[in-house]
């Protein structure tokens, strides 16, 4: 390929709001036939809101939110931010915490006075009351549990919204001949509900994937001789972005994701993915 023409392509990319790291990226883009989309912060806005609190026994909702928000102050996860914002809106003063520990893809914990408080997936607890599990199953959003010394006593539900541009952007990727997959550490029900809203079939949804395993989903598709583009925003997505034949990071996301990607999307929507792929094909058609 002619380097000059490719550079023109990368220049147009900048105008379209995509930052393409070098001309060779356009070549890689041309062969892509599969696109793996991270859910939270990529297909959805990632701006989660606290929607409901359920408690068991004599615990008050305020006490549950106070403890959860205190722990989550230490975490940068979007769920943590929604919980901390929820407490701030309710004008709750947060107690001091010690020994904060984060379990990526699962939750976080810390000590408040002499008790270990944990916030996150059911798997982090020794026991979760069945009434809380049933409550979680009925919620539309993502529900995390709050527990003291291993026993979950409350459930907080946060909700995310699908970007209003996502469905049309994914339709366009399909029109460009790409097969879309949805990838998330979130639960099956939440993942399927988002997939349905954007028209991704349930068979192409990979849920409950631990952060350290996200890149394996990309590898598996590559072993099936697919040429894979990965789109993500989080620290969790960095290895998958690097593993993919083409990595695209949301400019609204984390620095680590942007560093691992070939293309950074400066507009907060998935249409930029179609722009980047359309642009590279157009550029290469001109010069070949
Ligand atoms: P995604 O792939 O959707 O970006 P993650 O892999 O970051 O999700 O997290 C997967 C799941 O782990 C979340 O849906 C949540 O249940 C739980 N989780 C992760 N971090 C936290 C946290 N800081 N607080 C509560 N729950 C968390
Ligand atoms: Mg994400």
UniProtKB/TrEMBL annotation:
Cellular compartment(s): Cell membrane
Coiled coil: none
Family: Belongs to the cation transport ATPase (P-type) (TC 3.A.3) family. Type IB subfamily.
UniProt-recorded name of the protein: Heavy metal translocating P-type ATPase
Source organism of this protein record: Terrabacter terrigena
Residues of the full protein shown: 491 to 778 of 828
């Amino acid at each position: 390929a002619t380097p000059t023409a490719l550079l023109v392509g990368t220049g147009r990319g900048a105008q379209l709001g995509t930052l393409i790291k070098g001309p060779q990226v356009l070549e890689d883009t041309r062969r892509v036939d599969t696109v793996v989309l991270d859910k939270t912060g990529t297909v959805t806005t990632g701006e989660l809101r606290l929607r409901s609190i359920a408690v068991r026994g004599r615990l008050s909702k305020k006490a549950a939110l106070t403890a959860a928000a205190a722990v989550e102050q230490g975490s940068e996860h979007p769920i943590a931010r929604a919980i901390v914002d929820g407490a701030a809106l309710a004008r709750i003063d947060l107690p001091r915490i010690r020994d904060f520990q984060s379990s990526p893809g699962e939750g976080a914990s810390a000590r408040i006075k002499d008790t270990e408080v944990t916030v996150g997936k059911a798997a982090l607890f020794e026991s979760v009351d069945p009434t809380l599990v049933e409550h979680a199953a009925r919620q539309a959003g993502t529900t995390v549990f709050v527990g003291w010394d291993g026993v979950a006593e409350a459930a907080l539900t946060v909700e995310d919204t699908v970007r209003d541009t996502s469905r049309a952007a994914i339709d366009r990727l399909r029109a460009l001949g790409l097969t879309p997959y949805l990838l998330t550490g979130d639960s099956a029900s939440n993942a399927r509900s988002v997939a349905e809203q954007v028209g991704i079939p349930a068979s192409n949804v990979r849920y409950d994937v631990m952060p350290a395993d996200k890149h394996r989903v990309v590898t598996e598709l590559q072993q099936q001789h697919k040429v894979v583009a990965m789109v993500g925003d989080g620290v969790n997505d960095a290895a998958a972005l690097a593993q993919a034949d083409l990595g695209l990071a949301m400019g609204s996301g984390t620095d680590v994701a942007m560093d691992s990607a070939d293309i950074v999307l400066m507009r907060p929507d998935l249409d930029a993915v179609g722009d980047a792929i359309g642009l590279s094909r157009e550029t290469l058609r001109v010069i070949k």
